[in-house]
Amino acid sequence: MNIQRWLKRLSFASMAGMFLILLMGALVTKTESGRGCGDDWPLCNGKFVPAYTIESLIEYSHRFVVGVVGMILLATTILVVLYSKRKDAKWYVGGAMVFTVLQAILGAMAVVWPQSGPVLALHFGFSLLSFAFTMLLYLVYTKFGEAMHLGDGTRLTKGVRIAIWGILIYSYVVVYLGAYVRHSQSTGGCIGWPLCNGQVIPELSGATGIVFMHRVAAAVLGVAILVLFLVVRMQAHTDSAIYRATRLSLVLIILQILSGGFVTLAMGYDIYLLASMLHALLISCLFGILCYLGITSLHAAEGKVQAYAAPRLP
């Protein structure tokens, strides 16, 4: 048996499963199916097979997928601990296990005992961290794993490396605010986009204040990633993993901001659910890439940097 091949396969299955859990969790929230199984857990309304209602099927299928992915992740953990030679892989799979357990506990608590918006928002945040750890684990066994382990020869100043980690941490705050908007049922606080209720700065109270705070936070994140890209392209070669990850982060944050506008404009239409799922998908990808960028930057060589001019378009 080729152990490395199985490590890669199971790591990919764990990553794909965590990504599916994220999307299904967003679907549960957006369709208000969280109470589809009543106050029972792990059963659904006292039954192993739930009644045929849309809400119960969505909620119970989410639970089922979490269980299956949890078993896949457990098998991956055992294989990584026993056979992987990469210490960082063991850290990544350990982190994925910890946050998977935490998000499962929060999910069960939310069913049995009604939770507040801030606590429910953590459920999505823990799921996102689980996905990020499984993504890093999978990348260990791909061609991108070498840069995470030894670097790719890129030199970055200490200030840039600190900025990368600062943006990564701040992006999690933005994600949490977005989850809080959903779980506090504040989505309709701002009508219209990019203006909020027809104003540049609306009255900052209630749902309007929550949504506007999230919009401002997302805009600040977009500016920060843009500035980071402009700095990194002067210090990193265009073929380096760090430059590519920064460029992809810029593309994703632009799409994320636009998808936020799409969500707002789609309210009241059938396409609203699709817009919301797209919004969740993009932020998950962005956070994962920023995590990869952060890990890779740790191995960027210190010292005097060599400026690289960005290639000019013909």
Automatic annotation (TrEMBL):
Membrane topology summary: Multi-pass membrane protein
InterPro entries named among the record's database cross-references: COX15/CtaA_fam (IPR003780), COX15/CtaA_HemeA_synthase (IPR050450)
Transmembrane segments: 12-29, 64-84, 91-113, 119-141, 162-181, 212-233, 245-265, 271-295
Molecular function in Gene Ontology: metal ion binding; oxidoreductase activity
Cleaved signal peptide residues: none
Places the protein is found: Membrane
Major subcellular location class: membrane
Record's keyword annotation contains Oxidoreductase: yes
GO BP term, example: heme A biosynthetic process
Keyword presence, Ubl conjugation: no
GO cellular component, one term: membrane
Keywords, ordered alphabetically: Cell membrane, Disulfide bond, Heme biosynthesis, Iron, Membrane, Metal-binding, Oxidoreductase, Transmembrane, Transmembrane helix
This protein's pathway: Porphyrin-containing compound metabolism
Pfam families assigned: COX15-CtaA
Official protein name in the record: Cytochrome Caa3 oxidase
Higher taxonomy: Bacteria, Bacillati, Bacillota, Bacilli, Bacillales
